[in-house]
Amino acid sequence: MVSAYTVPPIYAAFVWWFSTGAVLLLVGRSGRFEVSRAFLAGVLLAGSLGGLALTAGDISVGGAYTAFTCTILLWGAQEIAFLAGWLTGPRPQPCPVGAIGPKRFGLALQAILYHEFALLACGAAVAALTWGGANQIGLWTFAALWVLRQSAKINLFLGVPVTNDELMPEAVQFLKTFFARKPVSAFFPLSVTLATAVLVIMIQRIVEVAITPFDIVGLTLVSTLFALGVVEHWFMLLPLPAITLWGWGMRSGFPPEDTTMEQEQDVKTAMAPPNLVVLANVRSDAAPPKLSPGACARQRLEDQFRQSYREQQAREGLTAAHTICPEPAATIKGRTS
């Protein structure tokens, strides 16, 4: 009976952490493994819906774990479609400079409208598959995820000190322009307070109402997930970089050639004497490697620096040629020797 209280929080926390990192890992490399990602998202979608349908009447402990896991997989499938840029909105473009108020809100909604419809469709599918069934863990889990996600989106739009936008893959980088990095609005304490109140009610039901192992496990799984969602809200306020939790999933966003270039550049800079410009070794017979946008920007900066250095050296050479005059030869009694 003790395991009904101790195992579900550990399982829910691991699934929350691992599923987030796995999604980031899958969508991190833009343009690569596109077919594989689409196939995996389709398998997750079909498998999770099928699992929810099979466990709708299962009130065993295994049924609770299965329904919870299937809902997480369903959420992961739609997150893959969203973060890969397949399902965003009718206007997947950055926010124009100067857009404020209702105009900014309308543009933000257009940027994610298809994704919001997909979430509602998934929620309707979960409700239809579990309608009338004794196992409602899947529906509770999806409702918790949806409420917390909407709250997080609103807070990011209205303004928070820490946006953690470094977690966003390249395909949806335009959404960062709709985030406001500033002190929290009045909505933040309201949303966190309400979420905490709901969490307290869930814990109270576990202690006072839940009797069967199914009820205890199911409520503990959902309440743990809800508590982690509240913690994610505090990540927007406290200087705790979320990338420390999912850095292993973000490594896929940087091609190996980029990290190798950065390491080689750091070594050359450290070994070079002061005032010495380190130029990259370029072979004319070698084909130029494909670089990511970040590497291209870095290359342009290096080229500009080299050009400025050459122009400065040329100007100094001309100045020296004009100012330095040849000394007259030594003379003896006024005559040149």
Sheet with most strands: 2 strands, antiparallel
Distinct helical segment count? 10
Question: What is the rounded distance between the termini?
Answer: 113 Å
How would the global form be characterised?
elongated
Radius of gyration: 29 Å
Beta content comes to under 5%
Mean pLDDT: 80
Count the beta strands.
Answer: 2
Spans of 5+ residues with little confidence (pLDDT < 50)?
Answer: 252-288, 323-337
- Give the strand order, joined by hyphens, for the main sheet: 1-2
- Helix and strand composition category: mainly alpha
Estimate nothing, just give the exact number of structural domains: 2
SSE run: HHHHHHHHHHEE
What percentage of residues falls in helices of 4 or more residues? 55-70%
Pfam families: DUF3623 (PF12291)
Protein name: DUF3623 domain-containing protein
Keywords: Membrane, Transmembrane, Transmembrane helix
Transmembrane segments: 6-27, 39-57, 63-87, 107-131, 184-203, 209-231
